[in-house]
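My main concern about presentation is that the manuscript never shows what a single data entry looks like. An entry of this sort, consisting of the sequence and the corresponding backbone structure tokens, reads as follows:
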Amino acid sequence: MLISLIAGFLEYPFFKEIYVWDHSRASKLIESIILGLPIPQIFLYEQARNRYLVIDGQQRLMSLYYFLKMRFPLSDKRNDLRVIFDREGSIPPDVFSDHGYFSKFNLKLPSKLPQEKNKLHGLNYDTLGDLQTTLDLRTIRCVFVKQNFPRDGDSSIFEIFNRLNTGGMNLTAQEIRISLYDSEFMKMVARSNTDERWRKLIGQQEPDLRRRDVEILLRGFAMLTRGAAYAPSMTRFLNQFAKDMQDESKEEVALLEKTLFSFLDLCAGFPAGIFGTATRKLNISVFESVFSAACKSGYEDKTGCVHSICSDKIEDLKKDSAFLDAVSTKSTNTDKVQTRLRRAKVLLMN
């Protein structure tokens, strides 16, 4: 039954992905289900017993969830809602009831014929009457994908996500990664992405809708802890790192968070654009190299302290010919990654 399907997901809210459907499209989905019209099947991956990841169908499930809650997210507040979710781990009831974030989810449906009102227009879940039972008893075809994760990080389930996910999302690698490799570590990274010091450092006031800024943080942590073992591609490297971090202890996650915050404190007085180059306001390769060099000793000795670095040394690093070459062309090759990590350590730690 439909209501059972949705109830199974209520304990794990959908806000990891941005909701992109408008009110009319969501209403048409609800209408189709009530009328018994076919809708696309939903692909689920069984991560563990009774725990599923939505590979394809996220927008449809979110629309149903919102309809059952009788609340529809305002289009200009959806990124704010995801920030709240990253910070709180859920959307608090008072936010759901706040008209500054949500409006009433009354169906918005066009008339079938001139002068004839659509009988479902304006109704919500509570006012469906007998049709509520009809909706509750409907079924949606689900396809369950069962597959083990390869140990080398080149996860075929990641590729399934990448190929099947539809609904206008065109998910970035990091959006898929956050859903696929959920962990206390990934929650910490998403939460840290909202830190004011981090927002100032990368020169973006608001978090990126597609999680690209979260990937910058992930790359920094990956290079700090696994940089010596890097091998392309970058996507596979980050996938494997994110997967490995699912098994890390709370103490390790806390250490990484403390290390990051120490680094952000260090950078507080740096001029804007310190991690940029002549062609980019923010160069990820520059950031991850400096981050790894400054944080390495504090991470390894478990103190979370960072090595003091002046901004002048970072500017000198960006003028170093070997480093500049390593961040400018073919920057994800193994040799280029190792070169820039090594040059950053040599030039910044002296």
Remarks:
- The chain is about 50% helix and 5% strand.
